[in-house]
Amino acid sequence: MVELIYDVHASESGALAILDDLYLKIKTNAETDKKYVFIVSTPDYESAEKIVVERYPWVKKSWIHRLYFDYITTRKILRKYRPDRVYSLQNKGIPFFHGEQDVYLHLPFVLCDYRFDLKKDGKRLWLYQNVLSRSIFKSLRQVNRVIVQTQWMKDALIQKAGVKEENIFVQPPDISMNVIGTFADTPSNRKRYFYPATAFHYKNHLTLFKAIEYASRHGLADYEVILTIKKDENSYTREVAKYVEEHGLNALFMGQVSREKVFELYANSILLFPSFVESFGLPLLEARLTNTYVVASDCPFCREILDGYAKARFFDPLNYTDMAEKILGISLEGE
Q1: Contact at 8 Å (CB) between 106 and 90?
Q2: Domain range for residue 166?
């Protein structure tokens, strides 16, 4: 049996983490009667006894390259491997594949109630929500199974996309293949804050730094904020960096880091998570398993992932003073 793992979309952040974990799981526990073919863009995976990896980094050059890959190259791949099953991790199925097909949907933009603004949030997110969502929904109604990460996504798929309930399966990310440490609860670690997130407006970095600025005027000292964005990635990050500089805040713009480094930081810092649009919010689960404190936006996906977790603190995602009070509370507890 040949299973095609189809995901040229994933190249960073949560989408890449999901693909990385799936590759490691299959490499470690591959079923003996299967051959797995990974179709990816930039991830540098190795082929193994039961695994074939084909990389197409050029697909990231432009929308033209992506369209060529989707409608020309993909047909060649299907003819070459003749898969019995396709597992697509890029939010929609292959329209001209007529075998068994499952789709992993981890794109929240097409389902959330928050309305993206063309100018503020950018063309890409606006297009996903207002244009591309139609073709995604149509595709999801036609495949065998749709896998989502949370119950809120399942409910939204039924309501907004018309996908049959019996075809939707809730499957939280499996991160068991990672080396997960344990939070070292020290006063200094309670003043080190980590936010692993990409450079999008909805990730809400400015609210985070407004909260830090407020907290620093009300007793927070000797702190550090660690981010996985760079200062000059885009106009949004430049705005964030300018705010940090103007207010003299202590922030480290690290850019993208390895999964190993992410788990090391969880074990030595508090997770701040002000994002208000997510399919799952993988850092929430990762931080929970590390047993660190989490200061998270009061949104359905955060409540679902952190349900029953005693070290979770929730705040109104647009209220920086509310967030600051939660940060100060954790800091003062450790003194």
Answers
A1: no
A2: 2-170
